[in-house]
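Quick question, first post here. What does this chain look like in 3D?
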Amino acid sequence: MSNLSQEKKERHTTRFTAAVRGKVRAKLLGWYDLKKRTLPWRGESDPYRIWVSEVMLQQTRVETVFGRYSRFLMRFPTLKSLATAPLETILVEWQGLGYYTRAKNLHKAARIIINDHQGKLPRKKDLLRLLPGFGPYTVGAVSSIAFGERAAAVDGNVVRVLSRALNLSEPINSPKGKLILKNEAEMLVPLSRPGDFNQALMDLGAMVCLPKKPCCQTCPIAIHCSAQLAGTTPLRPIKTKQRPQKNVTIFQIWAKKNQAIRLVRRKESGLFGGMWELPGLMVDGHPNHPNKKDFSALCQTKLGLHWETGKEITRLRRNLTHRKITFVVIRATQVKGELEKAPSGKNAIWAKNSDISALPLSSAQRAVIDATRETLANGQRK
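> Answer (accepted):
Ran it through. Tokens below.
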């Protein structure tokens, strides 16, 4: 390869010129006016509804949010209705969207807004940053879309678009790479129509600047894309390897009494915080059986003394962002002749089918319960 060709391949920049920024803004907004996606929250003027949509969209596919957005707002149509609702009802409505900390922060922030901001989302970015769940992206999105403030909203789509437009040779998850993208995103946002511009960048990443097969021939800013000019589009963005997912196993108890199963509520902090589930014991790795002493102690704590564990019913695997979880469900039966009452408390219940549908359970835990029921039903039919 000649020196000239090599130079072309390695060409990159860390910022646009002022002239190029102006052209990128104009072309991108023009494209957005013609090609923008039709989404349920597009054109919304209520800051509360805009906020809800942006929180839902974080780390969740747009298609998943489509139906859930309208349903959530039917249940909680105003900021006040969200703030005054019990957290458990909000978690129930959030099921299937994952990352339940977002729902908890939504609830916390709503209560703060009612108490400290006269029930209205604050316009100032400095005040928004103080609210639970308002990280850089949410602050930028709500500020620009709801209030017309000049603020960048950098999500995964925007990172991909900018890393290619700049032909960024720094990893996007490195401190230097993040700073370059943040600075350029902030300088790119125009004074006029900042919310539309941010959404235009997102749409460009979702519709044109795709991860694997970008449609460069239809990109409105291709002429200003350094990666396109250098022929390095497939190589951008660069990302350093993340730590491997941790393997864990959760051994769970299936105990049934009077057509109800035993469920317990997890602590508010940590994995699946505040959600209901079968009583369980988490261990590292993929052991075939739980530690007998620890599992017996779990059984006594959650069920009482006169229960004994038996055979495995089913197992199910689920992949989360940082964990690969194997759920193993083990049957527990009450010793005949013993009718000791199970330990009581607000964090442990006997739940019938109608109860379970109204409780906040993670999608993984619902899948575990469904798989257990199906296995037991098939066993009875044989």
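The chain is about 45% helix and 15% strand.
The CA atoms of residues 32 and 338 lie 69 Å apart.
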